[in-house]
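Lab notebook, design round three. We kept the backbone fixed and only want residue identities now. Task for the bench partner: fill in a sequence for the structure below.
Input C-alpha cells:
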C-alpha cells in the first residue's frame, strides 16, 4: 500500500522510466524517489557528445536511462583506452570526488537523468539507503571485474 501511494506521487517521467528497475533508483525510499525526481533533469546526448572530460572537475552525476556511454582514458602516447561501457541503469560521473579520471562519451543517442554533484552528495547524505546502494553497486562491479580478471589470467602448470 505504501509503495502504491509513493508511486502515485512520482512524475510520469520516473514512473515510465524503463531503467528504473535496473537503476540505483530502485533502492530509493518513497521520500528519496520524490526528492530525486525534483532534483534531477533529463538530458539527451548525441553520438560523440561528451558528458564528462578526463581530468576536469566533476560537475554532474548521471543515471543512464537509455543508450550506451564509453568510459575512456588517454594514454601517454595519445591513444584512447576504453575502460568500460555504461548502459541502462548505470551511474556515471564521480560522486564524492572532485576530478574525473576518465571521459564519458555517448556511443549513440543516450538519455540520462543528471544532477549536480554537490546536489547528489547532499541527497545521498540525507538518504542513507542511497549511499548504501551506491556502495553495493561499486562492490558488485569490483567483484565482477575480479572474476573477469581471473578468467582472463593464463593458468600456470596446465
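Proposed sequence:
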Amino acid at each position: 500500500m505504501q509503495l502504491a501511494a509513493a508511486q502515485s506521487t512520482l512524475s510520469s517521467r520516473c514512473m515510465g522510466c524503463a531503467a528504473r528497475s535496473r537503476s540505483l533508483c530502485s533502492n530509493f525510499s518513497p521520500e528519496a524517489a520524490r526528492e530525486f525526481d525534483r532534483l534531477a533533469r533529463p538530458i539527451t546526448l548525441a553520438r560523440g557528445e561528451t558528458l564528462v572530460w578526463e581530468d576536469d572537475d566533476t560537475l554532474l552525476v548521471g543515471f543512464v536511462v537509455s543508450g550506451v556511454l564509453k568510459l575512456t582514458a588517454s594514454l601517454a602516447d595519445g591513444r584512447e583506452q576504453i575502460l568500460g561501457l555504461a548502459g541502462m541503469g548505470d551511474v556515471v560521473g564521480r560522486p564524492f570526488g572532485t576530478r574525473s579520471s576518465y571521459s564519458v562519451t555517448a556511443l549513440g543517442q543516450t538519455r540520462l537523468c543528471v544532477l549536480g554533484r554537490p546536489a547528489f552528495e547532499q541527497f545521498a547524505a540525507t538518504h542513507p539507503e542511497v549511499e548504501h546502494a551506491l556502495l553495493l553497486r561499486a562492490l558488485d562491479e569490483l567483484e565482477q571485474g575480479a572474476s573477469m580478471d581471473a578468467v582472463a589470467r593464463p593458468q600456470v602448470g596446465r
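Keep this in mind before ordering anything: The two ends are 58 Å apart (CA to CA).
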